[in-house]
Amino acid sequence: MNIPVILGLIAFSLILLIGYNIYLQYQEKLAIDNKIAITQQNAIIKEVTELLSNTGNIPLNKPLLIIMLQRIINALAIILNRSPTDEAVREHLDHTTEQLKLIHVNYKSPSEDTFYLPPSEKEMLDMLQKSKKISAIIQSEHTKGKIETETFLAENRRIEIIQLKIHLQNGISKIMKAKALRQTDSASYMITKLLKKLSSVSNPDKYLLTKKSQLFQIQNEIKMISYENRIQQRQQQEVPELQEQQQEIHELQEQQQEVPEQQEQQHEVPEQQEQQHEVHEQQEQQHEVHELQEQQQETPQLEKAINDEPDKEDIFQNKRSSDFST
Questions:
Q1: How far is CA 51 from the centre of its chain?
Q2: Which of 76, 133, 184, 232 could form a disulfide with 226 if both were Cys (CB 3.0 to 4.6 A apart)?
């Protein structure tokens, strides 16, 4: 065998090997893509099925129910296209299609008056989460061109109204708690915010009108509580002033009581001075009397001394006669 033939066979073998590897890679990638697509569609089917089986208090009217079932049918069709031999998917698709036909013919939308909110905050939160999921589904189907714009706008507004009702009920519950705590500023702010949302709604239903009336009533009650709070604050501010005024009045009364005492003391001063003057005069008189008594006691002694003293003339005469005799 010549060399060109050998080289040709080798080149052909390499081309076949490369082509086979490319085919395997393509099949592997296709299998991965199919798996990813099937997983995504199964997630869509699961989400819609759970919403349909457990919508809670969210009323499903006919257009919305058709949108939800059609979404399941579209997802099943994609899965069946990726996996044509899956009989379970085919049966599920046939069953859902039959359901959709029956809804088109027999289903009647529930009245909006049947709508009510659950009593607990946890249930309302769960209801709000479901409404957001339904809203996302409607938006997604409209983006894909699966539903008409008119239907999208109508159903989207219904879901927004439901969400507003949930926010209203939750907000009123918080307002009542703030009112019980006499937190009037916080309650007034929440009321104003909710009333602003309600004013932006065109053609409100009976439920929204009832809640609007309730908010106005609560607003009036909050105003009364605010007025009472202001009066209490004013009274609390006036208490120290009243106490200070009472203290001043008490001090004035004490001063008025002290004035007669001071006047009486001032009146007693001259009397005391007179008494002291009289006492002084009495002391002087007693002193004079005492001096007179002493003088009277000394007078007899002086007289006796004068009588006992010898006459100087007699002494002189006696002396002369003695001299003459000598």
A1: 37
A2: 184
User: pLDDT for 150-174, tens place per residue?
Assistant: 999 998 998 999 899 999 988 999 9
CA–centroid distance for 145 within its chain? 47
Q: How far apart are CA 265 and CA 284, in angstroms?
A: 28
Determine the angle formed by the axes of helices 149-180 and 62-82, rounding to 10 degrees.
120
In whole angstroms, give the CA distance from residue 18 to residue 20: 5
Q: For 42-70, b where at least 16 C-beta lie within 10 A, e where not — what string?
A: eebbebbeebeeebebbbbbebbbbbbbb
Identify the segments of the chain with pLDDT beneath 70.
1-2, 56, 112-114, 237-243, 245, 258-277, 279-280, 282, 285, 288-289, 292-326
Provide the token pair at 87: 């009989």
Give the dihedral of Cα atoms 93, 94, 98, 104; nearest 10 deg.
40
Give the rounded distance of the alpha carbon of 227 from its chain centre.
Answer: 19
Q: Yes or no: say if 189 and 97 are a contact pair by the CB < 8 Å rule.
A: no
**CB contact set of 275 (below 8 Å; sequence gap of 6+):** none
Beta-sheet strands, E only, within 239-318: none
| Nearest by Cα to 42 from 82, 75, 14 | 75
Q: Is the Cβ–Cβ distance between 155 and 138 less than 8 Å?
A: yes
Q: Where are the alpha helices (DSSP H) in 55-120?
A: 62-82, 87-106
- The DSSP output letter for 326 is -
> Tens of pLDDT along 84-121?
888 999 999 999 999 999 998 888 877 766 677 877 88
Chain position carrying tokens 């959709």:
100
3 state SS of 260: helix
- Provide the Cα torsion 239, 245, 251, 256; round to 10°: -140
Angle separating helix axes 3-53 and 121-143, nearest 10 degrees: 140
